[in-house]
Amino acid sequence: MTRILCHQQLIMMNNNKVIKTYSEESVKPYRWKWNWWFVISLTIGHIGALIGIYLAIMYAQIKTLVFYFILIQFGATGIICGAHRLWTHRAYRAHFLLRIFLMICQTLALQLSILQWCLFHRVHHKYSDTDADPHNAKRGFFYSHMGWIFTDRHPEYLEKSQKIDITDLENDAVVWFQHRFYVPLVLLITFMIPTFVPCFLWNESFINATCLNLFRIALSLHQTALVNSAAHIWGSKPYDERIKPTENRFTTYVTMGEAYHNYHHAFPWDYSASEFRWDVNYNPMTAFIDLCAWLNLAWDRKKVDRKMIEERLRKYGNQQLMNVFDRQPKNLLLDTLFGLLTLFWALWVLLALRFLIHSSFMIQIIN
């Protein structure tokens, strides 16, 4: 069932403190403190990822590349459909089995536990682009993309995060279990299983599998981070020109429909995170939730009333983009195919480089 929410119902939804307040205050100077654990671990991880790129081009089996790119999509499903739309915004409700599946996928992505991820994101929405925002885009692209991970949290975040209600997360058995046993789950789900599957099933070398798995994790992190950085800096603002989040098409393609971001910050409770459903515009994660609803694994999908959207457009939207409901692709099939091709952009680049390099080697051998 899809539930259309009117204004009065939305006022009653403020129990988990995710309603937004925006501030136009400028960025205040602050002496950052390095979080050396994350600096060292991410540095080592990225070095391993760079080695993984080399091995992917030169030595790894193609089926290994395909395997890890499929895992990236499973991880993205856990982040987008799970940590984001389900647990942070409560945009729909999910069966226990679906919640377990999404928890496993979210663990695969290695982006902190669900409870930690949701706390960061709820603070991000309530205090978006202020000093309390953990990845404040006003501090620049690099900071909002990954610099915030390298530093200790700002005092404003530490203060304001204490006011965010996360009792719904603490009372969720799946969320609690993952948070309680996050380290062993990460060792098993994020590292051991993805590394040993190619080794045992098709005799991939251990070093290839290890470094390509690190590349998978790094690429997944950067694609997710684009929503915090690029989608808060570049793009259009049809729904609310007062805020920084934008509609960024490239980021939308590589995140499976997650960067209709000006709309999402205007209406964060919408289960589609977009003004459009998957059968109107590119949004495969919404299609996944609808499939789960058809299987009776998801229900109570929340959608924003069109009159509320039109009212927001009139008050705060870009008047030159008032025909936002007509901004639909001329051919949904072609738009979806283009989106799915863009989703695997890194795979196509690796395969192209692999073909070019190996072809040049063959030419040298022949000559």
From TrEMBL:
Main location: membrane
Record localization: Membrane
Transmembrane segments: 36-59, 65-84, 96-117, 181-202, 332-357
Protein family according to the UniProt entry: Belongs to the fatty acid desaturase type 1 family.
Keyword Ribonucleoprotein assigned: no
InterPro entries to which the protein is assigned, alphabetical: Acyl-CoA_DS, FA_desaturase_dom, FADS-1_CS
Domain of life: Eukaryota
Membrane topology recorded in Swiss-Prot or TrEMBL: Multi-pass membrane protein
GO molecular function annotations of the record: iron ion binding; stearoyl-CoA 9-desaturase activity
GO biological process assignments: unsaturated fatty acid biosynthetic process
Fatty acid desaturase domain location: 67-268
PANTHER family, A to Z: ACYL-COA DESATURASE (PTHR11351), DESATURASE 1, ISOFORM A-RELATED (PTHR11351:SF31)
UniProt cross-references to Pfam families, sorted A to Z: FA_desaturase
Names of the cofactor(s): Fe(2+)
Keywords of this entry: Fatty acid biosynthesis, Fatty acid metabolism, Iron, Lipid biosynthesis, Lipid metabolism, Membrane, Metal-binding, Oxidoreductase, Transmembrane, Transmembrane helix
Domain notes: The histidine box domains are involved in binding the catalytic metal ions.
Name of the molecule in the record: Fatty acid desaturase
Cross-referenced PROSITE patterns: FATTY_ACID_DESATUR_1
GO cellular component: endoplasmic reticulum membrane
